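ENTRY TYPE: paired fold submission
RECORD: A
CONTENT: sequence, then structure tokens
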Amino acid sequence: MYAPRKKVFWFAITTRIVILVLQVIFNVLVPDHHADAFKRPLDSTDQVSLCDQIIYFLFNGLTRWDGEYFLHIARYGYTYENTLAFYPLYPAMIRIIAVILTKIFPLFNIQSTMIIAAILINFICFVKSAIIFYDLTKRVFQNTVTAYKAAILYCINPASIFFSALYSESMFAYLTFYTMLGSIECISNIYFPLALSTLVRSNGIVNIGFPIYFRLKNLVNLGNSERMEKTNGQKHDVLSNLWYILKLIKLKSCFIILSTMIISLSPFVLLQIYNYMKFCTSTFDKSLLPVHILQYAMENNLILPGKTDSIWCNASVPLAYSYVQNTYWNVGFLRYYQFKQIPNFILALPILYITLQCIKEFACEYRDELYLLGFFDSKAKSESAIKVKKYPSSMLVFVVHGLFLTMFCLFFVHIQVSTRLLASATPLIYWYCALAMSHKYDHIDQYESDENMCSKWKVFFLSQQRYTLQDKFVLFYFVGYTIVGCFMFSNFLPWT
């Protein structure tokens, strides 16, 4: 029999293999849609062997949409201004591993090895993220069944195709969940995964709130314990406790928090300096670029490095990301609120509803304690201690984080992107759905049958005989979006 954590490990591997098989089948059966999107310029001098053709046949369905940008950046770097919307860690890792694979397997060309490298990175990162997510959920809820159910649902999440395609979702989810768990445990080097997450996705910056919050909370807990020892267990009101703890805050504590912020944000700042130096100064020699790259820029009116008259170059704070998103993808406040975008709003509605419902339920359970930010016990809490609550109070920082991302999705981004953005950044959707599903048991051996626990792929929703209406909605959404997503994405059709 497999322990729950090991079961999650094998099921994560199983689902990744299923996704790879599905995209091959859909890509072979259905002709590709001719989308008006960026397609990386290919070098006509590249030799294409039979091995390369096999790789293209099997995995070309994973290179659609943003995957084209990541492959281009991995090989040629940031050659066009619009590529600055994509952060460098993922393509850099693709490049490094592809070079190693090329040395080991000389029959493959660089394009093939980059596709293989990207798939390997996503496969490993996803499996590791599923394990870390299980550990994170168990740490927050102190419940094995909830952790198990949430991790299994994560393995079939509605944005599954993006966790296997040449996108940065898997890497970002792994670094984000690792940062969350490490912040709870107050590990000393938490700034490292946090800094890396800011080099994968722009919203990695908001992860900085986790180590700061849990450092402060740990400090408050120590202060509370110390004061109760000095006063023989006598309780004090919140204001007196706060004043006492503020007096306890030492320079060392402030230094730890400040250094974490500086180290975590420094890669992001260095990236902005690099973008400015490359695109806003005239020192870049365009002759270093291959001819087909320059030709593609001319044919598609793309801005090359060294062109100093871009608006963002002359801004007081020259940040390329927001300018590129605004200019090339029309991303901005309420810009997506158009009648023609109603289908995309419907597409994003389930994940937005789930996240907001989770936030609402948490706020209702802890409405009298929210102002304490989870730092102190309140009278309301002690009076309602006999009432079992659905969510643990330690979820507060995750709820605030999820609320921020949800509001950002609602008002700024292309709304359909909400599915993959939230699925890779916040655990709320998995926690809510895990708690919403039926069969609430305390022990895993009561929840899963012996037959299931002996299988690497068979889990509760595959063998369950009776489903509640709520179970059906959750599974229809998760599994349905996974299958439809594989079909749409692999054929260059618009999806989330």
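RECORD: B
CONTENT: sequence, then structure tokens
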Amino acid sequence: MLKNKRLMILGTNEYQNPLIIRAKELGYETHVFGWPVGEIGEKTADVYHPINILDYDLLWEECQKLRPCGVASICSELAMHPMNMLLRKMGIPCNSHETEDATTNKYKMRVLMKKAGLDSPKFMLVTDKMTIDEVRENLVGFHYPLIIKPVDLSSSRGVEKIDDPQQLGEALAYSLEWSKIKKCILEEFIEGQEYSGESVAYEGKYKLLAITEKHTTGAPHFVETGHRQPARLSPEMQKKVERVLYRAFESLDIQYGAIHPEFRITPDGKIIFMEIATRMGGDCIGTDLTPLSSGYDFMGMVINICCGKTPDFQKIRDPMLAEIRYIMNSHDKEEFKKIKRDNPDTIWRHSSIKELNNNPILKSADRVGYYITIKPLSK
């Protein structure tokens, strides 16, 4: 482990930018890598390197020249793979290839969690080599509604709810078209409020920092419309969530870094996972909401771990109620304008707001902007 303060950061977009800013605040010299497309990180970095982060050989050559103290990235599964490759070559502890593989493949993840005895819906793997008749034969014993999603994507891409058998063929084609490896997971749809549990791992020990209450457009595509921290859960349910999350993390052998599990709590109190990612939650969940609502320096923890150092669990601010709202239509846009006019002090920050259009909202990228609000926690 090198003692300098040169930190290699992979990714330049607005969701990586808070990491760049926090690293600079902590005294690191930020060397940011990414393809030159005019993203904000190209400007905020101390040194910007116009290099494709998926060119592993060139990335390792640059790393050897730079000799950084660590390599970090947040909120991106795409960047997670080259980050772990560099950390392994540098001798900095990180998750294994097996864990990386399981947490980026929803089917493998589901198999491992079921093997560990965690509650799970019925599920099956679907590939583009299967006929619709083969899929129907394997669905014997399943109950509608179902949900299908690519095994290898996030951000609601390729996700669709299937209410009856007549919708099956069209939904399969839609989801498989999105998958890069042409594989999807088809499973029984679970009713219940959706949450995520923002957590961190170090040497196989876990810490739940915050529980996020999530809101979506609902069926058929479940694009997220907003998040709230802390979630409105009883102390008893919070303890149950913590216990079940840690069992799930162990089933995937997660050892290091940020963890973003997404799950539902059913009406009868069961905790059913949708997926677990070994990265921060995107959409400002890890970078903004978690530090604001918990008081913990989540990005500082991730930087420490990616430099081979122990994370610091001291709180750096008083916890607050933090919410993010996504602008998806004219009503949302007017609501933002009203808050900005009448209660500007409650706005923590906001994105640039794109022009509205009449295109359907099928994935997170179709939203036109967001804003984050804060309030004191009620006593």
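NOTES ON RECORD B: The chain has a mean pLDDT of 94. The longest helix spans residues 235-251.
STATUS: closed
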